[in-house]
Amino acid sequence: MGDAKVELTTNAPGKVTFMDGCGDLPMLEVTTLWSTAEIYLHGAHVTHFRKQGEPPLLFLSQCSRFAEQQPIRGGIPVIFPWFGAREGMAQHGFARVKLWELKEFAPAPDGSVSLRLRLPDVPEGSSFPPFTADYILTVNDALTLQLAVTNNSPDEILSFENCLHTYFEVGDITAVSIQGLKGASYLDKVAGFAQKTEMDDAIRFGSEIDRIYLNTSEPVEIIDTRIGRRIRIEKQGSLSTVVWNPWISKSQQMPDFGNEEYERMVCVESGNVASNMVKLPPGETSRLTVKLSTSML
Ligand code: BG6
Questions:
Q1: Nearest C-alpha to atom 14 of ligand 1 is from which residue?
Q2: CA 120 to chain centre
Q3: Which pLDDT belongs to residue 109?
Q4: What is the model's pTM?
Q5: Average pLDDT across the chain, whole number
Q6: Atom 10 in ligand 1: residue holding the nearest Cα
Q7: Annotated catalytic residue: which of 38, 92, 165, 234?
């Protein structure tokens, strides 16, 4: 594409521009009456969303790679069809490093813009029953994401994990609290996957936190008193919530993450992982839908 920018226009107020992003990877820039967003076809990866008058919603590392076969660090990696480590395979599945296809783009008369991307057939998918994976993104004053997976097999169950691994931008991690998970059971990855119960009204950060909260379908909120913003995460078709901040030594170990960047981010991820893995009967579609909205405090 070189430096070409191709504007996909209609009479509706929302606009989509196709251009080269970082590392010359193809990117879609979406502009609506309320917000802007950037989406890479590499990984179907949203790297940016910003509501007018607010700081960016998503954290993106200054050290991120933008290269084929490498995940982008920050934004919203699409984790599918497995979460975490899998023997002999790449961590967090292959969807985040594949070039997705833009199938539809639909600016609506109300000013929203929706896009549908599809994961192409890839060799790594051959160990699963046949499936299609579509990612539908709607940009307006909020960002709504839906990962729809259809089991195309006539007789086999499709088992998979999924997760929208969202990195949120925060003013200062020590001024952040996460609400909505009290009473939930979680796997504490920092303590060797020990199963624990969340006793606190709000999660606060002072060391590495890496937890999979199970059987959690209610909204979760991030209260950021430094920026003065409340981020609300509402979801459907998701039973797991992952909360992660790498803190100091893990940040230093990640080559694509700045040593101090843990201070400005937190991951609150919505999906279905571990014992919440999806077991999809033949012919059925599973939909993981996440709506991210904000208000200033
Ligand atoms: C989180 C995991 O979801 O992703 C962490 O719970 C992991 O354990 C993190 O470190 C980042 O993973 P990756 O593969 O993007 O470095």
A1: 91
A2: 19
A3: 87
A4: 0.97
A5: 96
A6: 246
A7: 165
